[in-house]
């Protein structure tokens, strides 16, 4: 009985460590390519080495960290190729999930979508102190909005795949805010998705969603292109 209790506590600690490390990776406080030292992560998570190791194994399986028998763990790098792969699959899978949600969603689903959009739209996207950085509370509401759009698709597997891609996209989405010279009306983009969805126009809604993701991809690709420029 005691062993069962200890295993349950370890799983809880590992889950907490996973969430803490993932949040740091998403927000960039653990930047791409950084080596992850157990002592630092134990201090960050406030736990022992075993939950941290379990969390890193899970993060590696999900593509957020990389592992090597000799080098240990480090944060997965970002690249234009990975970003385009994520966007392409989001356009395919989330487009289908949105189409199914519009087909099957009821009035309660519509209410969730509308409420999620309202809470997101009330917040500015950029931080006041650092305009090139995204607000964490906006990002949370943004995730809820996009998740709610797909929540009536009726397929747990499709929902899970879309959720995994949404999480993988967050680092790139945050990068898109920091790129000078990129002009977008993100408020209008979200409104177009919302209006077409609530009007039950699936083709228009899916197209608006795919264009929304493509604009983010174009902005981030500009970042990578500029980084490769000489001088």
TrEMBL record:
InterPro entries: GntR_C, TF_FadR/GntR_C, Tscrpt_reg_HTH_GntR, WH-like_DNA-bd_sf, WH_DNA-bd_sf. SMART domains: FCD (SM00895), HTH_GNTR (SM00345). It holds the Pfam family FCD. The keyword 4Fe-4S does not apply. Keywords: DNA-binding, Transcription, Transcription regulation. Residues 11-78 form the HTH gntR-type domain. One of its GO terms (molecular function) is DNA binding. Gene3D superfamilies: GntR ligand-binding domain-like, Winged helix-like DNA-binding domain superfamily/Winged helix DNA-binding domain. This is Transcriptional regulator, GntR family.
